[in-house]
Structures are given as structure tokens and as C-alpha cells.
Design a protein that fits this description.
Helix content: 25-40%
Shape: globular
Strand order of the largest sheet: 3-16-15-10-9-8-7-4
Number of strands: 16
Number of helices: 8
Radius of gyration: 18 Å
Distance between the termini: 27 Å
Strand content: 15-25%
Order of helices and strands: EEEEEEHEHEHEHEEEEEHEHEHH
Largest sheet: 8 strands, parallel
């Protein structure tokens, strides 16, 4: 029996639903030493801005129970270096390329998107958790009006399909999903990290120089699954689910909740082969339960 693992995201066919989460995989250089990146449905790059970003002061990472906090600050070399160095590297592999885009103003996003318009990349993931400097630092993804506006503007400049990456630090994720859909998003991805804090009781100081950081890892998975389910109820767009996925079983929770695809993030730090093994785990599950097409599982719990 043949088992179909391919999924379609806004007209882009992925060989399987597994990709990497932005910020946890770089552009795949180190991980390519462990396995062929071509076994993945897609590689999602670290966020790239119109100009180099130095990131936040150190320390920027702290371990927590069942997860980690990070306040890297989206450090990146800028779009020009990215185009010259990272895209040619990724083109060596038989996988789709998704570029994560960050910015501090709408024009920042649009500048990056325009520079990527003639590049061999398949989709663009817009990180709306960036601080909107024009609005006093409030993230684009925390106000429906701002999210709809940035989505609409990015779509005017994008030649590739646009994924809007939603922040979980909101009251109603369904409202945010609808705002992105209204702005013309092609795909949604969620969740980004939850805002958290850790204090070193021995030093009596913050564990991270930024004071707060983004919580990721297994600790956030139940929240992430719930938000993916709610987003899937709110919109008709395909969804990429992420948040604490370590293996195929974790990934399948997101798929059953309504995700068309999944991203593996923090698990890459403890197991460099986590994304590859997640894809293998999904295939093994399909074989065990005689599921011929992965799409049969998407949103299955919604009908219960």
C-alpha cells in the first residue's frame, strides 16, 4: 500500500508535512552534517531583516523546566548577506525553502519581501512578533488592526505565498487568525513563543539580560495545540502548527487539531535529528493505522 505524506500549502507541494521552526535551525548548515535536509518537507530559515540586527545583550538563553527561554533579539546578518550566502546553500537540497522575515516597521518587511521576489524561495513567513517601533514597541501581532494592515501591505509586494506567524500573547487567537485572513494571508503558522521570565535566586537577578524571553519547548505544547485548534475553527486557511513538538506523536496532535503541516523547533537543540525523526514517526503511524493519505487526519478531531 502506498502512503501519501505530501501536503499543499497555497499551491506549494511539500513531500511531507514536517519543517523546521524559524530561529532553531539557522539555514540548516550545521544540521546538514547529521542528515540530508532533503528528507524534510521544508526548511524555515532564521528571521532576516532589511539590515543587520545585532540582537539583544547576553545572557540571552536560560533553561527552564520542560523548555527554554530565549531573548536572542532576532540577530541576523541582513537580507543582502542572506541572499548571497544562505539561499545558494539551501538550493542544494531537495526541499522547499521558507524564509522568515522580520522588521520594525511595515516598510522594513516590504523591503525584504521585494528583495526576495526574484529569489528561488517557495514561501515567506512573516514574523509579526517584532516590535512595531511606530506604535511604541507593541508587536504587530498583538493588535488585529495592525496585523491585518501589515499582512495587506506585505501581500502587495510579495511574489511568493505569504505565511503569517501568529503570536500566542493575545487574548483571542481566533480573532488574530481572522485578521490575518482578512489581510490576504495565504497560510498561518502558530504558535510563536510565550512571554516568560526566570530569576536566578542565587545572584538575585534576571537570568536573561532582557528580563523577559520567549518560552518554547514541551512546556508550551498543550497551549499550542489548543490555539491551533481554535485558529482552525476560525479560518479556512491552511495552518502550520508548532510549539513543543519532539516527535511524530506530538506532531500528530497538531495535525488532528487542524494543522496541515508542522514545525519542529526547540527539540533540534537536544536532538539534531528531531525533524527527520518526526517525519519518520508520522509515516510509521500512517502505516500502523493504514492511513493512506496524511490529509485524512487533518482536523479529524473537529468532527468529533
Amino acid at each position: 500500500m502506498e502512503y501519501r505524506t505530501s501536503v499543499n500549502l497555497a499551491g506549494v507541494e511539500l513531500k511531507n508535512p514536517v519543517m523546521t521552526a524559524s530561529g532553531t535551525f539557522g539555514s540548516g548548515g550545521e544540521y546538514s552534517e547529521f542528515y540530508d535536509l532533503g528528507v524534510l518537507g521544508a526548511v524555515v530559515t532564521k528571521g532576516v531583516a532589511n539590515v543587520p540586527w545585532p540582537g539583544n545583550p547576553t545572557p540571552r538563553i536560560a533553561e527552564t523546566a520542560s523548555g527554554m527561554l530565549n531573548a536572542i533579539g532576532l540577530q541576523n546578518p541582513g537580507i543582502d548577506v542572506f541572499i548571497e550566502r544562505d539561499i545558494p546553500f539551501l538550493c542544494q537540497f531537495d526541499t522547499k525553502i521558507i524564509v522568515n522575515v522580520c522588521g520594525k516597521t511595515i516598510s522594513d518587511y516590504c523591503e525584504v519581501v521585494e528583495k526576495l521576489s526574484d529569489q528561488p524561495v517557495d514561501l515567506l513567513e512573516i514574523n509579526v512578533s517584532c516590535p512595531n517601533v511606530k506604535e511604541g514597541g507593541i508587536a504587530f501581532g498583538q493588535k488585529p488592526e495592525a496585523l491585518e494592515k501589515v499582512t495587506r501591505e506585505v501581500k502587495k509586494h510579495a511574489r511568493q505565498p505569504v505565511i503569517m506567524k501568529l503570536s500566542p500573547n493575545v487574548t483571542d487567537i481566533g480573532e488574530m487568525a481572522r485578521a490575518a485572513e482578512a489581510g490576504g494571508a495565504d497560510v498561518l503558522s502558530l504558535i510563536n513563543t510565550l512571554t516568560g521570565m526566570k530569576i536566578d535566586i542565587h545572584k538575585r537577578s534576571f537570568a536573561i539580560a532582557n528580563k523577559t524571553g520567549g518560552l518554547s519547548g514541551p512546556a508550551v505544547k498543550p497551549v499550542a495545540v489548543r490555539m491551533v485548534y481554535q485558529a482552525a475553527q476560525a479560518v479556512t486557511l491552511p495552518i502550520i502548527g508548532m510549539g513543543g513538538i519532539q516527535n511524530g506523536e506530538d506532531a500528530l496532535e497538531f495535525i488532528l487539531a487542524g494543522a496541515m503541516a508542522v514545525s519542529v523547533g526547540t527539540a533540534n537543540f537536544t536532538n539534531p535529528c528531531a525533524a527527520k525523526e518526526t517525519a519518520e514517526g508520522i509515516k510509521a503511524y500512517m502505516e500502523k493505522y493504514q492511513i493512506r493519505d496524511i490529509r485524512e487526519l487533518v482536523g479529524m478531531v473537529q468532527g468529533l
